[in-house]
Amino acid sequence: MSDSTVRIGLVLPDVMGTYGDGGNALILRQRLRMRGYDAEIVEITLNDPVPESLDAYTLGGAEDSAQRLATRHLTKYPGLQKAAERGAPVLAICAAIQVLGNWYETSSGERVDGVSMLDVTTSPQATRSIGEVITKPHLDGLTLPLTGFENHRGGTTLGPDARGLARVNHGVGNGVGDGQEGVVQGSVIGTYMHGPALARNPELADLILKRALGVDELPTLDLPEVEQLRRERLRV
Ligand code: GLN
User: Fold this and answer.
1) What is the distance between the alpha carbons of residues 12 and 7, in angstroms, rounded to a whole number?
2) What's a BP term from Gene Ontology annotated to this protein (predicted)?
3) Given ligand 1 and candidates 151, 181, 183, which is best to mutate, with the most ligand atoms within 8 Å of its CB?
4) Is the residue at 195 inside a domain?
5) Fewer beta carbons under 10 A from the terminal one: N or C of the chain?
6) Which range of residues forms the domain containing residue 220?
7) Residues 14, 64: Cα–Cα separation, whole Å
8) Is 1 domain-assigned?
9) How do residues 69-127 score in pLDDT, each as one tens digit?
10) How would residue 203 be classed by pLDDT, with cut points 50, 70 and 90?
11) Is 150 near ligand 1, meaning CB less than 6 Å away?
C-alpha cells in the first residue's frame, strides 16, 4: 500500500454485515480501481482498534446481540468518531444507524446507549418492516431514486441535528410516520437499504468517493450491468 492508496474501512464485518453489506466496500474499491486509483479495503474487526486515518468507512446491518458488541467496540475505540469529525465519509447501513445514534431499544425493550455520532433514537415498531424500498433523495448531488431491501424492526426518530436521506415512495424507511428514509449528519450517511446499497445506487457510491477524494467530479463509468440492476430495482 503506497501513500496515495485510497483506504476504505470495512468496520466490524465480523459482527455487522447482514445481506452482503460488506459489498459496499468492494464497490467503492472497484469504482476507484476502474478509474485508475490504487484502493484497498482495511477490515477492522473486534480484535482491532478503529483507525481514524482512513479515507472512507462502511458499516453493515446486524441483529441485536451483534449490534451490542459493535456499540461497545466503537465506544471503546473512537477512531470512527474522530474520522467523521474531520469529514471522512461514513456509510452506515440499518443497524449501523442505530449503533451510531444516541440510543436504541432492542426488540426485548432494553435501551442501549449508542455512539452519538447521529442525533437519532430507535425503538421497536409493532411489526417488522421487510421488503423493497424506493425513495427520492434530498441530498445535493443525488438526482436518481435510491432503492434497496429493508428488514428491520427498529423505527428511527430524527433529532434536530439530523435530517433524512430521502423521502419514501415505496416501503417503510425510518418507520416513524415522517415519510423519511435514512439519515444525514455531517459526513455520515445512514440508510436502511441493504442490497448492497451501493451496488444498486451507483450515484450514491460516487458521491461517497468524491467526498473521500476531495474532488468535485469523477470520470463517468459506463457499466451496463450496473445500470440494468439500478433500473430493474425501480420496478417492484
Ligand atoms: N436489529 C435491527 C432491527 O431489527 C437491525 C436489523 C438489520 O440491520 N437488518 O431494527
Assistant:
1) 15
2) cell wall organization
3) 151
4) yes
5) N
6) 6-234
7) 14
8) no
9) 999 999 999 999 999 999 999 999 999 999 999 999 998 889 999 999 999 999 999 99
10) very high
11) no
CATH number of domain containing 17: 3.40.50.880
- pTM of this structure: 0.97
Which amino acid does the sequence have at 77?
A: Y
Which residues does the annotation mark as catalytic?
94, 194
Cα–Cα nearest to 86, from 219, 187, 205, 216:
187
Q: What is the phi/psi pair of residue 76, to 5°?
A: -70, -35
Ligand 1 in contact with 61 (CB < 6 A)?
A: yes
CA of 129 to the centre of ligand 1 (A): 10
- The number of the ligand 1 atom at minimal distance from the alpha carbon of 67 is 1
Gap from CA of 193 to ligand 1 centroid (Å):
11
Measure the CA–CA gap between 104 and 114, rounded to whole angstroms.
7
Residue whose CA is at the smallest distance from ligand 1 atom 6: 152
- Indicate the number of domains in the chain: 1
All 3 cell numbers of residue 181? 428514509
Residue 12 Cβ < 6 Å to ligand 1: no
Binding site membership of 84 for ligand 1 (Cβ less than 6 Å)? no
Q: Per the domain annotation, does 52 fall within a domain?
A: yes
